[in-house]
Amino acid sequence: VLGSGWGAVALLKNIDPTLYDVSVVSPRNFFLNTPLLPGVTVGTVEARSLIEPVRALLPGKPGDASFYEAAAIAVDPNARIVRCKDESEVTAANPEFTVPYDTLVVAVGAPPNTFGTPGVREHAKFLKEVDDAIDVRRKLADLFETASLPGVPEEEQREMLSVLVVGGGPTGVEFAAELHDFLREDVPRLYPALRDKISITVVQSADHILNTYDERISKYAEEKFARDGIRILTNRRVTNVAATHASVMCKKTKATEKIPFGVCVWSTGLGTTPLVSSIIAAAGQPRRRAVSVDKYLQVRGISPRGSAYALGDCADVKSKAASGGELLDKADELFKRADVDENGAVDKGEFVNILKTLEESYPQIATLTKGAADGALHDILSRFDDDGDGSLDRREFRRAMAEADSRLASHPATAQVANQQGEYLARELNARGRARRNGRVTAEYPAPTKPFEYVHLGSFATLGGERAALDTRGSPLPLDFVSRGAGTMVLWYGVYFSNCVSWRNKAMVVLDWTKKGVWGRDSSRV
Amino acid sequence: VLGSGWGAVALLKNIDPTLYDVSVVSPRNFFLNTPLLPGVTVGTVEARSLIEPVRALLPGKPGDASFYEAAAIAVDPNARIVRCKDESEVTAANPEFTVPYDTLVVAVGAPPNTFGTPGVREHAKFLKEVDDAIDVRRKLADLFETASLPGVPEEEQREMLSVLVVGGGPTGVEFAAELHDFLREDVPRLYPALRDKISITVVQSADHILNTYDERISKYAEEKFARDGIRILTNRRVTNVAATHASVMCKKTKATEKIPFGVCVWSTGLGTTPLVSSIIAAAGQPRRRAVSVDKYLQVRGISPRGSAYALGDCADVKSKAASGGELLDKADELFKRADVDENGAVDKGEFVNILKTLEESYPQIATLTKGAADGALHDILSRFDDDGDGSLDRREFRRAMAEADSRLASHPATAQVANQQGEYLARELNARGRARRNGRVTAEYPAPTKPFEYVHLGSFATLGGERAALDTRGSPLPLDFVSRGAGTMVLWYGVYFSNCVSWRNKAMVVLDWTKKGVWGRDSSRV
Ligand SMILES: Cc1cc2nc3c(=O)[nH]c(=O)nc-3n(C[C@H](O)[C@H](O)[C@H](O)COP(=O)(O)OP(=O)(O)OC[C@H]3O[C@@H](n4cnc5c(N)ncnc54)[C@H](O)[C@@H]3O)c2cc1C
Ligand SMILES: Cc1cc2nc3c(=O)[nH]c(=O)nc-3n(C[C@H](O)[C@H](O)[C@H](O)COP(=O)(O)OP(=O)(O)OC[C@H]3O[C@@H](n4cnc5c(N)ncnc54)[C@H](O)[C@@H]3O)c2cc1C
C-alpha cells in the first residue's frame, strides 16, 4: 500500500491481515484528517488532534504488518517491485530500497497545483499537509505580533494584516471562515488595537465561490462573506506572487491589479506527483493528472489485471464509456425520446421512464436516482424544475443531463470518495483472499466480484460563525438536499466527529472544541 | 519587563496594573513551563500544553498592558530606554524601536552554555525552548522510522538508535528517564523489531549524576539507571561533537573515545545572552555570567537605585558579604572555635551553638538551619555525619561549611527561585506604588521595604518508571528531607500540576497524562 491518507487508511482498517502480508510505504508516518485542517491555522483544533500514527492503524498485532517511512519513487509492474527512497532528514547510508508485491495499492494523493504561476512555491503557503497549517498559524501569529509593535505605520499594519486566499473552493472558503471567526472571537481579547486593520480577500477564477456546490449554497456563502466583510473577487486569476503582493488579472478586462498581503494561502486545485506520472507512463496511459482505473479500481494498462490498484486523489475513475458530456451531447435527442406526448415538456412519469431506460447504458444516471424509491423519483425531477410547474422544459432537462454527466465524469477528489474506495477495495481483496484460501479459485488474480459504487453523502462547507452549508444532491440521506445555516453546523460537528479515524482522535477533537469554547484560541507562535 | 519566562510571569501575575503601566518585551509570545519540557521529546505531554500566551497573562483588562514580541538588545540606564529589535521572520520595514521606562525588570533567562565545544550548535540539540523539544521529538521519530526500513544493517541501526545525553543534571537525567519510559512502554507496540537495538548514554563531568542533589539521590538515580540499562559515564567531558559521534575525554586518564549517536542532547549549564553582557557592562560590573543584584534584586551599579531590577536565571543574587567559599576558607578556624571541649569532634551541642553564633554574620548559615526548631538542629548534624558517630570530625565539619557556602553563593538557577523572585518583586513594587499614590512617599524610587528571601521547597527529579526523587534539605516542608521512589512520583505530579500557570494549562497537562495512559504516546513525526 502506497500512502497513509484517507484511501490507504480505509483499506488498512478493513483488510484481513490473516489473508495478506501488508506493507505500507509513505513519507508521512501518520494519517491526517484533512477536513479539519483549516481550523489548525488559527488554533480551533490542534494539529496533533488531527493525526493518528500509521503504526497504530496497521492491521493485526504489532509486527504483523510493516510500515516504511519513505516515498515510493517508481513502480516496476513486470518485476512487481516498488522502488522507495527515504527522503527525510535522517537516512541510512543507502536511502533507497525495494519492496516486492503481489498486489499493489496506489493511494498517494495529489499535490497542490500552482498552474505554473511564478512565485507561488516561494511566497505563498499551501493548505495540504499538517506542516502547512502549522506554518500558516505561526506566520499569522508573527504578523499580528509585528503589527502590534510600537511605531509601525498604519499603512504597513494594514498591508501586514491583509490575508489573501487564492481559490474559492471548500478549502479556501473554510480557511477564510476560520480566520474570520478568529478575528471576531479572539482578536478583540488578544490584539484589541488591530481589530479594524485586518482584511481578508478571496480570489476565485470562476463566477462564484464554491462553484462545485449547488447555486443556493454559493449564494448563501457569498452573502455571509459579504456581511462579514470578506472581499470576494470572482473571475480573476492570480498571475504572479511576490513576497508581499500578488498580481491579479481580471479574466474579462485583462486588467491587472496588485493586491498586497501579509500571508497568501494557495488552494486552487490538484497536480500530479512524479510517482503518479511514472505509473501513468509505465501503464502506457495517455499523460493526465491522475492514474486511469477501471470500475474495479484496477490500473488500466497494467497486467495481470488485479495486480495494481489506484484510488483516492491520485486515481481517475471516469469510465471510458461515460466520458464527460456524453448525456449532455445527446440531451436534445433524449428530450425528444422522453417527451412521449410531445407537449414540449417532460412530466414526472416521462422523466421516471427515461431515467429507467437510460440507467443501464449510462451509469451516470445512477448517481441521480441512486437509492431513490419510485415515489422519490419525483423529488429528482423537482430538483431541476426551476419554474416549479411540475415538469421539465428543454432547458431544465439539459441541466439534469449535465449534472448526471458531471457526477460521473469525475468522482470528486474528496476524502469521502477515497474512504469509500479504500473500504470497497478491502472488501474485494478480502473476498479474493478468502476464495483463494478456500481453494475456490486457483487464479493468482481472480476476477473482481462487483464494481465500486460511490454513495455521495453530500458536500459540506463551514462558513464561520457556526454556520455551514450542506449539499446532498444525489445523496440517499433523508435530508433536504441543500441546507444552510446554524442547524447545518450541528450536523457538521457530527459528521466530522464521526470522520475521525479513532476514538483517540474523536476525544482529542472534542476536547479541542471544548478548550476553544472555554479559553479561546491560543495565540502562541509555536 | 524584559522576558516572558518564570520570573517575568510571576511578576505579571502579581503586579497591580492600576499602579503601573506595564509593557512586556520578549521574543517569545508565550510562557513555557520548562520543568515538563523533557516529556515533550517523547510525547508524554504536548508542547502546547506547556505554554500559555503572554497576552493572556498580562495584568488588567485587554489593552491595559502592552506586549511587544521582540528582543531587547540594549538598555540605556541614563536615558531609561530599552532598545528592541524584532528578530522574527516577519518584521516591519524598520524592525528596531525603543521603549522608555521608569522601572525596568530584566528577566531574560540564560541560554545554554556550550563551553566553546566545537560542533555543539551544529550537531547537538538543546533542551531549553519548546522548539528544541519538538525538534528532538521529530528527530527521534525520524531515527526510529529510518532504522525500521528494510536492509539497514544492524550495526547502522544500533548507531542510529544511540542516544547521547551530555550533562547529568536534572534536565539531562529527566530526558534520559522519559526516553527510557518511551522505550519500555511504547516501543514494543510501535517498533517491536527495534526493542533491543536502542541505547542511552549519559556523560557527566562530575563524579556523579545529579551532583547538586543529596548523595542518596544521586546514588538512587544511578542505581535505577543501571537497572534500566542506561549507561552513565562520569568524570568525562565531551570535547567535540560531529554529525554522528562525539569525542569524550576521561578527565583522569585524558584518554578520548568516540561515541556514536543518532541524536545528542546537550544540557550542561547556562551561558550569557548578549543583552545581559551589555547590561553588566553598562552597570560597570565585572564580567560574569549573570547580572549582579543586591538583596532587593536591584542591579548593582545602576542609579537611581530602584530603577532597574534583575531576577531569575540572568541574575546573580550572591551578596558581596557572602561571596563563595567564605566559610570554607575559615573552616578549620571555625572548627577550633566550635570544638569547645577540644576532643577533636564537634558534637550536637557544640554544632548548634556554633551555628547560632555564625547565623548573624553569615547569612548562608540560615540556608542550613532555615525553619528548623532547636530539636531539629540535630537532624542537620546527622546530614554531615558520614560515619554516624553522632558528632562531626574535621572533614565532616568542612563539608557542612562548604554546603552552607554553596547554598548561598548562588541561588540555583531554577524556576522555583525565579518564581519567588517575581512574586517578591511584584509585592515590593506594589507597596512602593501604593505608598506613592497615597502621597506617603514622594521619592521617585523609595527605598525597598524588605529583602528577598528564598524559601527552598526541595528539588525534584523524575527518574522514569513512575519513580522520582526529592531533596528537601533546607526546606520548611514537613517531609523527610530526601525521598525517593514511587510515592515521590505522586508528589511530583502534584507539584508540577500546581506549577502550571493557569487552569487551562492544568487541564491540558492532566489530559495529556490521561491520553498517554489510555492510548500511549504518539509516534507521528510532527
Ligand atoms: C485542507 C483540506 C480540506 C479538505 N476538506 C475535505 C472535506 O471537508 N471533505 C472531503 O471529503 N474532502 C476534503 N478534502 C479532500 C481530501 O483530503 C482528499 O480528497 C483525500 O485526502 C484524498 O485521499 P487520498 O488517500 O487519495 O490522499 P491523501 O489523504 O492526500 O493521502 C496521500 C498519502 O500518500 C502519501 N504519499 C505521497 N507521495 C507518496 C509517495 N511517493 N509514496 C508513498 N506515499 C506517498 C502521503 O504522504 C499521504 O499519506 C480536503 C483536503 C484538504 C487539503
Ligand atoms: C528542560 C528544563 C527543565 C527544567 N526543570 C526545572 C525544574 O524541574 N524545576 C525548577 O525549579 N527549574 C527547572 N528548570 C529551570 C528553570 O526553567 C529556569 O530556572 C527558569 O526558567 C528561569 O526563569 P527566568 O524567568 O529567569 O528565565 P526563563 O524562564 O528562561 O525566561 C526567559 C525569558 O526571557 C526571554 N528573553 C530572552 N532573551 C531576551 C531578550 N533579549 N529580550 C527580552 N526577552 C528575552 C525569553 O524568551 C524568555 O521568555 C528547567 C529548565 C529546563 C530548560
Please characterize this protein's 3D structure:
The structure is a homodimer of 526-residue chains. With 526 residues, chain A is α/β, with parallel strands linked by helices. Chain A folds into three domains: 6-27 and 70-111 and 271-317 and 412-437, FAD/NAD(P)-binding domain (3-Layer(bba) Sandwich), CATH 3.50.50.60; 120-269 and 458-519, FAD/NAD(P)-binding domain; 323-409, EF-hand (Recoverin, domain 1). Chain A is built from 19 helices and 24 strands. In chain A, strands 9-16-10-11-12 form a five-stranded parallel beta sheet. Chain A has a three-stranded antiparallel beta sheet with strand order 5-6-7. Chain A has a three-stranded antiparallel beta sheet with strand order 13-14-15. In chain A, helix 9 links the parallel strand 11 and strand 12 (231-233). In chain A, helix 1 runs parallel beside helix 17 and helix 5 packs antiparallel against helix 6. The radius of gyration of chain A is 25 Å and the shape is globular. The two termini of chain A are 33 Å apart. Chains A and B meet through strand 3, strand 4, helix 5, helix 8 and helix 19 of A and strand 3, strand 4, helix 5, helix 8 and helix 19 of B.
